[in-house]
Each structure stands twice: as structure tokens, then as C-alpha cells.
Amino acid sequence: MESKQFQLNDIVEMKKQHPCGTNAWKIIRMGADIRIKCEGCQHSVLIPRKEFEKKMKRRLVEADPQ
Known about the structure:
Blueprint: E1 11-14, E2 24-29, E3 33-38, E4 44-48, H1 49-55, E5 56-61
Antiparallel strand pairs: 1-2, 1-5, 2-3, 3-4
Protein name: DUF951 domain-containing protein
InterPro entries: DUF951 (IPR009296)
Organism: Psychrobacillus insolitus
């Protein structure tokens, strides 16, 4: 199975919708755990990388390479 590609500051779509009504999340921290911030209500969540890779559907917006 192909591993999903993502990097810091990407906006990704998760499989389940957030209670505020949006699926778009911005990756704001990466490591063993990944912190994502809801683009709708700005709520942030810290989840283990393995769980994040399982729950992530696709990348919506790729971060600008610097």
C-alpha cells in the first residue's frame, strides 16, 4: 500500500467531518504525533502519526515549498 504524502502547513481532508461542519485541517506540527487545526473553527487536535495516516483522506492544498 502506498504511503500518504503530507508535509507541514498542508491542508488535508479527514474521513470524518468536524462538528463545526468542515473537513479541512491544516497540519501545524509534525513528529511522532501530528497537530492539526480545523480551518472552520480553529480548534486544534494532537493525534498519533499512525492514527492520522489512517484517518486522512487526501491532501487538499499543498504547502508552498520555501
